[in-house]
Amino acid sequence: MHAFSKDDDVRHHAQGPQGRTELSESNIYTVVARMPVESDGRLRYRIRSKTENVERVVTEDQLSRPL
């Protein structure tokens, strides 16, 4: 079951070298769509940046609720 819904604001935790989380000031995104579950079983979302013209597909474990 997806934890986030369309139009939710989320914080994206980007992966750095060797899987370490990179900290970034501009990492608040809006959920554009919930993607179908892939064969690996992980839930994915299409998200759009609130500050840049960037859209990406990420897994649910890379997202959290903004503070």
Describe the SSE topology:
Elements: E1 9-12, E2 28-34, E3 44-49, E4 55-59, E5 63-64
Antiparallel strand pairs: 1-2, 1-5, 2-3, 3-4
Q: Can you characterise this structure?
A:
There is one protein chain. With 67 residues, this protein is mostly beta strands. The chain contains no helices and five strands. The protein has strands at residues 9-12, 28-34, 44-49, 55-59, 63-64. The radius of gyration is 12 Å and the shape is globular. The mean pLDDT is 86.
Overall shape: globular
DSSP strand count: 5
Structural class call reads mainly beta
The ordered H/E elements are: EEEEE
Helix content: under 10%
Strand arrangement in the largest pleated sheet: 4-3-2-1-5
Unreliable spans are none
The profile of the biggest β sheet is: 5 strands, antiparallel
What is the CA-based Rg, rounded? 12 Å
Strand content: 35-45%
Mean pLDDT: 86
- Please report the number of helical segments: 0
Distance from N terminus to C terminus (CA atoms, Å) equals 23 Å
